[in-house]
Amino acid sequence: MRCRNCGSDASLVFADLRSQPLSNSYLRPEDLDKPEITYPLRPVICPDCRLVQLPDLVSPEAIFREYAYFSGQSNQWIRHCGRYADEMLDRHDIRKVLEIASNDGTLLAEFQDRHVQVLGVEPARNVAWQAQTFTGVPTIPEFFGMELAWRLADYHPDLIVANNVLAHVPDFDDFLGGCRRLMGDGTVATFEVPHLARQIQDDDFSQIYMEHRSYFGFITVQRILSDRGLRVFDVEEIDTHGGSLRLHVCRFESPVHQTQASVPQLSRWEQENAFWDPDALAQFAERPPEIKRATLRALGEVDGPIALYGAPAKGNTFLNYCGIGAEMIAFAVDSTPAKQGTYLPGSRIPVLAPDALNAHQPQTIFVTASNWEAEITAKIAEECPWNPTVICRPWRAKCRA
Ligand code: JHZ
Ligand code: ZN
């Protein structure tokens, strides 16, 4: 394919997870006797800018207009948002915030609580409706780009937030051009993106799915931004979604924000640890088959029914690649009302409310949202007095609740 960022021919395979249905396309009962469209999950590496990427086989409309992910389902995420708001208000003079991909308004509500004016942009109509109606966050139910930026030209945000959205963007020029259009010399934007190096270090291929068009190393994402007039002036490594980068960004020429030592330090670390070497990145392709074999061995040793706690998109990639379905997993539970009563795409494992655990009392619970392992394991210890075995990252050792 042609690299989404620099146009080079990108054909070095990063992983081959076979063909899978969209990972956030949970099935309703009436969908069970219909075919599922699958897409080849075979991200490739650009030899020049090292962007790991999937082709644009699915339109954003098809993925995002009705969405099953509501960020407020995790207490840890809500705490993360509160800490972020405090950090940014301590660091900058912020009176107005714009969040792109604001989901159910969980993060913007934290700024509202701190008497900051907020505006969200969220293309998933069902999620935007929840933000507007229940969270009370003004939300524009549209995709962000240059056209919307021009319409928002009079908003003048002091802070633009774009968490876990850059990976979904098909056109960096349009999206980042829109961000730059809304920024003045003092404006700060923060982008949180899963860090490719952490995914490789943690053997984590579960975040590879069609919605995630791009997978970022730091040097790569820094250059994607600078090629579009934006400068990373600071970078933090944070624990969300299995290990992410929080990029602090300003207009390239801004005299206000000086570039911190964290930026060259992380670039140097990636170069010194072979995360800037396309051939080294391509070695990751060997890991999914090994992880699949180890996982099936671990789950094959389990006596009795297994339940899942959490029905994340990343779990669907993992289950479908490993060929794990309803013959091995009795059911999944998830706190997201929109997911309850559905079936996981591909594996067709039924998704129930968490109280189903007590009704069935499975002796083994598998957590596929390894990024929420601590929070979910604590909930299991609290909600499941029969002390089930909790399996997380089954290709490693099992762990108990
Ligand atoms: P979670 C999302 O992916 C969607 P997913 C998105 N595509 C993205 O980019 C990545 O995040 C970064 C449930 N749960 O957060 C809630 C409980 O039931 O790992 C969720 O359905 N009880 C925007 O879907 C799922 O687990 C709990 O106590 O992989 C977790 O999904 C907790 C903590 C979670 O994101
Ligand atoms: Zn490239």
Question: What layout of secondary structure does this protein have?
Answer:
Blueprint: E1 12-13, E2 19-20, E3 39-40, E4 44-45, E5 52-53, H1 60-64, H2 75-91, E6 96-100, H3 106-113, E7 117-121, H4 125-135, E8 139-140, H5 146-151, E9 159-163, H6 172-181, E10 188-194, H7 196-201, E11 214-215, H8 218-226, E12 230-238, E13 244-251, H9 262-272, H10 278-282, H11 287-300, E14 306-309, H12 313-322, E15 329-333, E16 351-352, H13 356-360, E17 364-367, H14 373-383, E18 389-392, E19 399-400
Parallel strand pairs: 6-7, 6-9, 7-8, 9-10, 14-15, 14-17, 15-16, 17-18
Antiparallel strand pairs: 1-4, 2-3, 4-5, 5-11, 10-13, 12-13, 18-19
The structure holds ligand JHZ and zinc ion.
Kindly summarize this structure in a few lines:
This protein has 401 residues and is an alpha/beta fold. 32% of the residues lie in helices and 18% in strands.
Number of strands: 19
The gross shape turns out to be globular
Distance between the termini: 45 Å
- Return residue spans where pLDDT drops below 50 for at least 5 consecutive residues: none
Evaluate the radius of gyration: 21 Å
What fraction of the residues are assigned to beta strands by DSSP? 15-25%
Q: How would you write the strand order of the largest sheet?
A: 8-7-6-9-10-13-12
Q: Helicity level, as a percent range? A: 25-40%
Helix tally equals 14
Biggest beta-sheet profile:
7 strands, mixed
Bound heterogens, unique: ligand JHZ, zinc ion
Class by helix and strand content?
A: alpha/beta
- What is the arithmetic mean of pLDDT? 95
